[in-house]
Design brief:
four-stranded antiparallel beta sheet; alpha+beta
Length: 893
């Protein structure tokens, strides 16, 4: 009996205890009918391929009479039929499978879109019907008010009002008819779906093919509606007509706004990342389908899928930014190397000229196909050196071959072409005649038909928005408005939000349709670091983000449906709690012994000899430190500024920042000019190789000796891929660990230039545009990108103190910022300290709790200042925990 039960046991749904009827081939998972409905409506799985379980059997019973299918007549025929002998016929099984495959797209649309939107439209229609009943109940009283002005005719009019108005007034019945029509349409869709899903052994292939021939299915998403208005005429002659007639004004198609269907998620969710072949970077992305995109760098344009495989390569492109787009027929439109705009057929076999360049003074920079109008938007620019009226738009540069100063004026415009390639509009000036654009790089169109342009030159720019008619609306220059924006890739979503990549802050910023900043949607995303390009998939509502410096593309989802069915579909897996390590116990005790004093107390300063600036500081004793500059100099100095020793074989380059450290035996460890890591004896007489460079692709850029593990942390950089990593070596120089990716497999570092370790074992790295912190095991904890978050950071010297604070020198704000161990901004500890315009290297003395601050390039560039900002508590029992308010000002609690 048990064997029989196990043999015919029904499979259980993967989501609930129900019985399986469907199978998702994309997940894969088994689904009951109810879970299938949730699966096809959820935006996470909207593009999944779902089939009935019986399709795995692929069983079609043999027909006794009809064995063939006539393609011209589209009917099943018998094997011996003479009438169709000269026609092209297929095996009935082949025709059945082919027909089902052709209708699969329609079925997916019905499952995921049509029935979903019908439900929302029906809800609105029922509400309008109730509203009509309430509004129409007021009309008799309004008519009676009109009748009071002509009392001599009131009796006759009142009779007509009470007896005939309902006959003449049919608006209520129109709404009722709409409701009935909608219900019939939903029934027909459901019937079509049921026909498609009938098992082959109960509903034969013959019946299926015969049925779909008769069906003329139309999936529409709009309903016709009306608007009522009452005549206000009081002419005596037309009194009867005015009191007994209500005019019906046609309002148009009933539509559902995306705001009623979609909403923003609390934060973006990573869906997938892929590494492409055939491009060196992702300058621009154009979505083709939900699993195919076109990606270009400065030299190549490829068609790729979600596995990163190159499907096609276009070789005649121009070296531009937003140089390609897709039209509604799926044809690729791009700018070629001769500045003509070409069209590549959907099968990628035929290339034709769409718009030929006729004016040599204007250069097309970027293109965008308007889905709403079928027009092509082309952003162009030209340069001139003799436009005296545009001096405020001049861009200055210095030519080494011709040292005289030259000025050029960049002038931009947006042209609109129809489907035939004819110019229909040109947008260049605002209402006052001022120029709108300088050098457009990317262009898009919003859902309200606004034209959105990413316009920048040099290191700053703006997002310039005009309406469809070309009238200027606004310019977005960053958040806050006085910040510096360098906009690159741009896109809009189904909620009419505008998304833009900012290269200055390495963020993707989101604003509403009116230019109001909403949020930093992505801040220095892992694996990309510097986002360059964006493309929004209107079908799955997913955002494709491309990297500026490597071939990584990351797909995010930040929009979900306003649907209770999908609200509970997302089950987020919680992260494991970070265990308290033994190294945190001293920190907890330190809180009872130490406190922060603010402002820091200036002790003294000194000017160094032997170095041109103070790029990096390594503490040796309370009165001796090692200091290095941007050349090949490392000196040992004391508190009077005397040079005690000079190392001249250190690494010299543009990124020789945190190149030295001191181990537990007070020996100097540094990177030499050959990228080997050397060790200088305590008596400074013997130099030995501690770690020899074996991989020429990776360069060590910064080092730090960890007292807790007695090992060496080394920040490495791979120039070809423009990515970094952190290696951990033991005290014998053997590699124990390599930290390169987060838990999703995306790169953490761009170019590590300073590195240190916190008291809780965290590895703290000063990267090119952020402070990246991982726990000792290598798991990513947080990334700090300035205060407020995403505002921009250029971090240099970095250190931690006895209270596990993280101190970082920021070149943008010329400050030393203090964070807690979890990355929360506490305060600007120092702002342009004691004559130092640009702080560079910083070092913390664990014995005296003093902070050594070194000057970078600029005024007093060889200046070294010493501060004290941590002091002992007055009594051991008086624990005054120093806290900071929202403005970074300290208070005790």
């Amino acid at each position: 009996m048990d064997n029989a039960n196990s043999l015919y046991r029904v499979h259980q749904c993967s989501k609930c205890p129900g019985d399986t009827k469907y199978q998702c081939l994309s997940c894969p998972c088994n689904l009951c009918p109810q879970c299938k409905e949730t699966h096809v409506k959820d935006l996470k799985t909207i593009d999944h391929n779902i089939e009935l379980c019986r399709e795995k059997i692929n069983y079609i019973p043999k027909q006794e009479i009809y064995r063939k299918y006539c393609e011209p007549c589209k009917i099943p025929v018998s094997y011996h039929s003479r009438k169709h002998r000269k026609h092209r016929t297929l095996d009935i099984r082949t025709a059945y499978i082919t027909a089902r495959r052709l209708h699969r797209g329609i079925i997916q649309t019905i499952r995921s879109e049509a029935l979903f939107y019908r439900h929302v439209l029906m809800t609105g229609l029922k509400t309008d019907f109730k509203t009509c009943e309430a509004e129409f109940s007021l009309y008799p009283s309004k008519m009676l008010t009109k009748a009071d002005t002509l009392k001599d005719l009131i009796d006759d009019v009142l009779y007509d009002l009470l007896n005939n108005v309902s006959c003449d007034f049919d608006f209520k019945h129109r709404c009722l008819k709409e409701k009935i029509d909608m219900q019939k349409h939903i029934v027909s869709l459901q019937r079509y779906l049921n026909i498609y899903e009938q098992p082959a052994f109960s509903f034969s292939a013959l019946e299926f093919l015969s049925t779909i021939k008769k069906v003329r299915l139309q999936i529409y998403f709009t309903l016709h509606t009306s608007q009522s208005s009452m005549s206000t005429s009081l002419n005596k002659k037309d009194l009867m007509e005015s009191l007994s007639t209500i005019q019906i004004t046609e309002k148009g198609n009933r539509r559902v706004e995306n705001e009623s269907l979609l909403k923003l998620m609390s934060g973006p969710e990573l869906c997938q990342s892929l590494t492409l072949t055939g491009v060196g970077g992702c300058v621009h992305i154009s979505c083709v389908t939900s699993d195919r995109v076109c990606v270009s760098d400065k030299n190549n344009l490829i068609l790729t899928n979600t596995t990163g495989i190159t499907l096609h390569n276009a070789e005649d492109i121009w070296k531009g930014d937003g140089l390609h787009t897709l039209n509604t027929e799926g044809e690729l439109i791009y700018i070629d190397r001769n500045y003509n705009i070409n069209k590549l057929s959907k099968d990628m076999k035929t290339t034709s000229s769409y718009i030929e360049r006729t004016d040599s003074t204007w250069i097309p920079r970027c293109v965008y196909w308007s889905l709403s109008t079928g027009d092509l938007l082309v952003a162009m620019n030209r340069e001139t050196s003799d436009d005296k009226d545009d001096k405020k738009d001049n861009v200055y540069y210095y030519d080494t071959d011709h040292p005289e100063l030259k000025t050029y004026t960049w002038i931009g415009k947006v042209d609109r072409y129809n489907r035939s390639g004819q110019l229909t509009q040109s947008i260049q000036h605002d209402s006052t005649g001022l120029k709108l654009y300088r050098k457009p790089h990317y262009i898009a169109e919003n859902y309200n038909w606004d034209v959105v342009v990413s316009d920048h030159y040099s290191m700053s720019g703006a997002v310039v928005v005009t309406d469809r008619e070309g009238r200027y609306r606004f310019s977005y220059t960053g958040h806050p408005s006085e910040s510096n924006l360098r906009p690159n890739g741009i896109s809009t979503d189904a909620l009419s939000n505008i998304l833009v990549c900012d290269k200055n802050t390495n963020t993707v910023q989101m604003m509403d349709r009116n230019g109001q900043f909403l949020s930093y949607l992505l801040i220095r995303p892992s694996g990309i670091i510097t986002p360059q390009s964006l493309s929004y998939d209107v079908n799955t509502h997913r955002l494709w983000v491309g990297s500026a410096y490597n071939s990584t593309v990351v797909i995010y989802r930040y929009i979900t449906r306003q649907d209770a069915l999908t609200a509970s579909a997302d089950v987020m897996q919680s992260l494991n709690e970070i265990k308290t390590t033994e190294t945190e116990k001293p920190h907890q005790e330190q809180e009872y012994l130490l406190k922060v004093i603010f402002p820091p107390e200036f002790l003294h300063s000194l000017s160094l000899t032997g170095v041109t600036c103070c790029y990096h500081i390594s503490y040796v004793t309370s009165d001796q430190v090692w200091v290095s500059d941007y050349k090949n100099n490392i000196i040992l100095t004391n508190t009077t500024g005397d040079t005690l020793h000079h190392v001249k074989d250190s690494f010299s380059g543009s990124f020789n920042y945190g190149i030295h450290t001191v181990n537990s035996e007070s020996k100097l460890i540094y990177i030499d000019k050959n990228y080997n890591i050397n060790k200088l004896s305590k008596d400074m007489k013997t130099t030995t190789t501690f770690i020899e460079r074996t991989d020429s692709a990776w360069k060590p850029l910064c080092v730090y000796w960890t007292p807790s593990t007695r090992g060496l942390l080394v920040g490495m950089y791979k120039e070809k891929l423009k990515r970094g990593k952190v290696n951990r070596y033991n005290q014998s120089g053997q590699l124990n660990q390599s930290i390169e990716h987060d838990n999703t497999g995306l790169e953490l570092y761009s170019k590590p230039i300073y590195i240190t370790e916190n008291n809780n074992g965290d590895v703290v790295v000063s990267d090119l545009s952020a402070v990246v912190v991982t726990e000792r095991g290598g798991r990513h904890r947080f990334t700090y990108t300035g205060h407020p978050s995403g505002s921009g950071l250029t971090p240099y010297g970095i250190c931690t103190d006895a209270l596990s604070h993280i101190l970082v020198s920021d070149d943008i704000t010329k400050t030393i910022q203090m964070l807690d161990k979890d990355g929360q901004f506490l305060t600007n500890l120092l702002i342009k300290p004691s004559g130092i315009y640009q702080t560079q290297g910083i070092g913390y003395d664990v014995n005296t709790h003093r902070l050594w601050v070194g000057s970078g390039l600029g005024l007093n560039k060889n200046r070294l200042c010493i501060y004290k900002y941590i002091n002992r508590q007055d009594t051991r029992t008086d624990k005054q925990t120093q806290r900071f308010d929202g403005d970074g000002m300290p208070f005790s609690a």
